Amino acid sequence: MARIIIHTRGSPLVHRTPKGDVVVICMCGLSGNYPFCDGSHLKTDGEKGGAVYIYDSSGRRRGRAVKVEMEEGVVDLEDLVAV
Ligand code: FES
Fold first, then answer.
1. Other C-beta atoms lying within 10 Å of the C-beta of residue 66
2. What is the per-residue pLDDT across 57-75, written as a single tens digit (0 to 9) for each?
3. What number does the ligand 1 atom closest to the CA of 10 have?
4. Which residues surround ligand 1 with Cβ inside 6 Å?
């Protein structure tokens, strides 16, 4: 089974707890230590707006869809190109 989860941020969320501890939460979805940021968001550098980038389970960028249609739970990735 496969699924597509779209993350739109390329940087972490930095949260300070009431005790003053800093927790850095992954918002890009690429961390190998999810839900915590491990710096993997740097792989999103160079991504262009208006496209969806596809990464494999090892965090390697595999492709880019330049036209994405989402309708009733169905995602149609057109014009998929390797990057
Ligand atoms: S925000 Fe995802 S690894 Fe840093």
1. 13
2. 888 998 887 766 667 766 6
3. 1
4. 11-12, 26-28, 30-31, 37-41
